[in-house]
Design goal:
Rossmann fold, 35 strands, alpha+beta, 633 residues
């Protein structure tokens, strides 16, 4: 009885400690290091974001900052932003938006279907208010705004007669009446149409098979591509070009890296290589917003680099860049008559800025931005290549130098993503407070060819984790920071890597920070198997590993080996890595009496969209770094 009582008291103490940690960051101690004003500037929404130009050239829409919230606003160009009408939707409400039929703005809302705003009349109404497609498991997708028929649009939406698979509807944007023109059928989950509205391709997945279907002259469909999603050459459809005869695709069908190709939309044959790079994947096509034809392509070296082969487009961009006094402008929209054009620019140290060009007046105008953005710190970031041991090649990373002799290895999520030089508020925050930051593009990252991407398959906790240790050693070898003066920080997969580093690299690091990190690979795999298309995600993570092997590679099962302080943050409404991961890890660390802090981000999702959640993450991370590896230690 005494033993049971002691066990019960110990459990109560552990539970109380866990609840205290969940509710009060740092066990109730409130720290405030760093510049509070800088924190506010780095985490607030941009003054204008996601700016879009109507096809008639009269209106602009944007997400406009009001306090810490981004609200949707529409204004007439000639009247100015101050005259704009604020619609009752914020950033969190929107899935996507698009201008259709001149001055009509179509909004796809996360919970309320499709609504249409007529900027000329100021009327806001449901797009479809009678019989017609309804949102189901699959969200709606705009396939074409039908430029030659401005009162209609072409939509993909779930087919009520084929649950889980989309049909194509021609919808009258004025009356809301709809007509089904292509029925849903297995396995097609994505239709592709030309700008003129001809449905050209169907794309589907069956298990790990990726298939493309083309329309025959008689209206039937023929399979033109059947490939293994993991083992065969990569293939990703980007767009159908004007006329419908060709599609733009990214493919590695004859090299390791992804290249931009023009493909025959009827047969699947590769017609012409449009762009490639000897070291990096092509990641996007640059389309002329008026013709919808490819005029260039983008790849990511340290940052995004554009190659434009259409001479007229390139000369026009050069002229606009000269007038704006900036480099790397991208045209994001144009009126149907070409009179007005919208450009965006990424400063690298601040949010995007937008420019509007009026061809009749031959004038380029910068849209309103917050002048206090000019006071933001400008990290000096460079791309470096780290030699990996055992002839494993080189790993690319981004290095940002801080003023002190302490450092952070910032691990990106995904993990099939990559770190790219651009505006990263977290990097700005850390370097402004003296910390150098290294962002490794470890094996499994995208952008460096198929072999590098696939080298990460089923290598969580092994080869991918070895690359994190090599990153730590690179910082030490170059005397950026000493042993024990480095912290590994990351979100999602990066959070997992940070926790594994706390287990494997305690001889080199001083702490670890995990935001929404995976703590159990086995638990993640079970969760993913409840979702659609899990065969496109689970094999990349699990491979042929047993559940026992997954447990051996999970921080939750190896928590007894944690020997450095850990900061856990987890969002309560995370749909990618459920909150349970954070709770279980905190429970185990409490039981093992490890040094850690746990912060629940109440109401937040996997990606921190709210300014308040970003501030909690940034501030507590800096507090934690200063407490455990700070300059005075």
């Amino acid at each position: 009885m005494r033993g049971r009582l002691n066990l019960m008291l110990a459990s109560i103490r552990h539970l109380f400690a866990l609840l205290l940690l969940v509710c009060l960051p740092f066990g109730g101690r409130v720290l405030a290091v760093g510049d509070a004003n800088l924190l506010k500037l780095l985490t607030r929404p941009p003054k204008l974001a996601a700016v879009s130009l109507s096809k008639d050239g009269h209106f602009l829409s944007a997400l406009h900052r009001r306090g810490d919230v981004s609200e949707l606003i529409v204004w007439h160009i000639d009247a100015g932003l101050e005259s704009g009408e604020t619609l009752p939707y914020s950033y969190d409400d929107l899935d996507w938006l698009a201008w259709v039929g001149g001055g009509r703005l179509l909004l796809s809302l996360n919970e309320h279907g499709l609504v249409l705003y007529d900027a000329h009349t100021g009327r806001l109404r449901p797009l479809i208010d009678g019989p017609g497609p309804r949102p189901g498991e699959l969200p709606p997708i705009l396939l074409s705004a039908l430029p030659d028929d401005p009162s209609r649009i072409l939509l993909q939406w779930e087919d009520p007669g084929a649950r889980g698979f989309p049909a194509v509807y021609r919808v009258d944007a004025v009356s809301g009446e709809s007509e089904k023109i292509v029925s849903g059928w297995k396995p097609v989950v994505r239709w592709w149409a030309s700008p003129e509205g001809e449905v050209v391709l169907g794309e589907g997945f069956s298990g790990r098979k990726h298939r493309l279907y083309a329309r025959r002259p008689d209206g039937s469909w023929a399979e033109i591509v059947d490939r293994d999603y993991f083992d065969d050459a990569a293939l990703a459809v980007l767009a159908v070009e004007t006329g419908g005869a060709t599609a733009l695709v990214l493919s590695s069908h004859n090299v390791d890296r992804r290249e931009l190709w023009r493909m025959d939309a009827r047969s699947g044959a590769f017609l012409e290589k449009l762009a490639g790079h000897e070291r990096f994947d092509i990641v996007a096509a640059i389309l002329d917003p008026q013709t919808n034809m490819a005029v260039g392509a983008s790849y990511e070296e340290d940052g995004v680099e554009d190659m434009v082969w259409a001479m007229a487009h390139r000369d026009h961009l050069a002229d606009m860049e000269s007038r704006a006094g900036v480099g790397k402008l991208v045209m994001t929209g144009a009126s149907a008559d070409g009179r007005r054009q919208l450009f965006r620019h990424k400063p690298g140290y601040a949010p995007m800025r937008y420019y509007l060009y009026d061809r009749e007046e031959d004038a380029l105008t910068v849209l309103p931005f917050d002048e206090s953005d000019e006071t933001l710190p400008r990290p000096q970031t460079e791309g470096v290549w780290i030699d990996l041991p055992k002839d494993k090649g080189q790993m690319h990373a981004l290095f940002s130098k801080g003023s002190g002799n302490r450092a952070v290895v910032l691990v990106h999520g995904g993990p099939v993503r990559r770190a790219t030089d651009g505006f990263n508020p977290m990097v700005s925050w850390l370097t402004a407070n003296g910390y150098s930051v290294l962002q490794p593009n470890f094996r499994g990252s995208s952008g460096f060819g198929e072999a590098w991407r696939r080298a990460g398959y089923a290598e969580w906790g092994r080869d991918m984790q070895d690359d994190i240790r090599d990153s730590i050693e690179w910082l030490i070898d170059r005397q950026v920071a000493p042993e024990g003066g480095i912290c590994v920080v990351g979100g999602s997969y990066g959070g997992y890597a940070a926790l594994m580093s706390a287990i494997r690299d305690d001889d080199l690091i001083g702490c670890a920070v995990s935001l929404n990190g995976v703590t159990s690979i086995e638990l993640l795999v079970k969760y993913l198997k409840t979702r659609r298309f899990y065969m496109l995600t689970v094999p990349r993570i699990q491979g042929h590993l047993s559940n026992w092997a997954l447990r051996r590679r999970s921080p939750l099962s190896r928590a007894d080996l944690v020997r450095v302080p850990v900061l856990l943050l987890h969002a309560t409404k995370d749909r990618n890595v459920p909150y349970e991961h954070g709770i279980l890890m905190a429970r185990v660390l409490t039981k093992l009496e490890k040094e850690f802090n746990f912060i629940a981000l109440k109401g937040a999702g996997h990606q921190l969209r709210r300014a308040v959640d970003k501030r909690i993450y940034y501030q507590n991370t800096l507090n934690f770094l200063d407490a455990h590896i700070g300059q005075g230690r």
